[in-house]
């Protein structure tokens, strides 16, 4: 009795396929590996320009596709904000002779390895980073985020805004430059271009690190001027 039921179910299934696509000779089978290949090529195209080593860790798709005979084309769509790494839900659109027959949601997980600066020990808030406190290692962007520091030169001499464990990536928003000039400090104001060089004495109205823009008051004219911090005693007016 059980065998009879299986035979009947198989017959019904075959009739169903034929009713959708006509004669079985007019259908084609798309293997699961083909769908995976399409997704792999799409991820590669999204990560080629990122200077990372991209590895697909997971493709949430299983099963073959039965389609009517004809020219098969694929289109893969990703969320607009997806950068090509981490987890994302993609849509694989399958067309036969230009007609959309499948729209398959596929979850992917992509590892993106790249060089980044990591701490070599636990560090406390306010510590100044030295050369021995950090190292460059290859890590996954999906775990570290976009604001990673890629060069040791970018972090040494800067101060930590918060405490950090050892062996974790450093982000640029966790660091701050040390102010060279304090608020109220008397500084030299330098006005300089290719033709002239003029100096005046001023007082800083705010603190600033190298390259920061600060307001200084010219002590002779009492006028406020915007200038850029050059070193611990000099600001420069750009004109």
TrEMBL record:
Q: From which domain of life does this come? A: Bacteria
- Give the range the annotation lists for the signal sequence: 1-21
**Compartments where found:** Periplasm
Q: Does the keyword Signal apply?
A: yes
Q: Which Pfam family, an example, fits this chain?
A: ChapFlgA_N
Q: Any keyword Signal?
A: yes
Q: Which InterPro entries match?
A: Flagellar_FlgA, FlgA_N, SAF, SAF_FlgA
Its biological purpose: Involved in the assembly process of the P-ring formation. It may associate with FlgF on the rod constituting a structure essential for the P-ring assembly or may act as a modulator protein for the P-ring assembly.
The name this protein goes by in its record = Flagella basal body P-ring formation protein FlgA
The major lineage groups are: Bacteria, Pseudomonadati, Thermodesulfobacteriota, Desulfuromonadia, Geobacterales
């Amino acid at each position: 009795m059980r065998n009879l039921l299986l035979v009947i179910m198989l017959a019904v299934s075959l009739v169903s396929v034929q009713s959708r696509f006509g004669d079985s000779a007019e259908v084609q089978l798309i293997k699961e590996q083909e769908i995976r290949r399409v997704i792999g090529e799409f991820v590669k195209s999204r990560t080629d320009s990122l200077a990372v080593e991209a590895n697909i860790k997971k493709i949430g798709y299983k099963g073959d596709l039965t389609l009517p005979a004809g020219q098969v084309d694929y289109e893969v769509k990703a969320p607009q904000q997806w950068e090509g790494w981490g987890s994302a839900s993609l849509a694989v659109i399958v067309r036969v002779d230009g007609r959309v027959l499948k729209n398959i949601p596929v979850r992917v997980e992509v590892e993106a390895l790249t060089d980044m600066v990591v701490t070599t020990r636990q560090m406390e808030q306010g510590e100044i980073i030295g050369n021995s406190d950090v190292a460059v290692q290859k890590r996954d962007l999906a775990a570290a985020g976009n604001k990673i520091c890629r060069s040791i030169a970018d972090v040494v001499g800067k101060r930590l805004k918060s405490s950090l464990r050892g062996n974790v990536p450093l982000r640029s928003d966790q660091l701050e430059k040390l102010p060279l000039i304090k608020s109220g400090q008397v500084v030299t104001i330098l006005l300089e271009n290719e033709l002239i060089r003029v100096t005046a004495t001023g007082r800083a109205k705010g603190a600033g690190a190298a390259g920061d823009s600060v307001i200084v008051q010219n002590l002779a004219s009492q006028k406020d001027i915007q200038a850029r911090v050059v070193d611990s005693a000099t600001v420069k007016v750009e004109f």
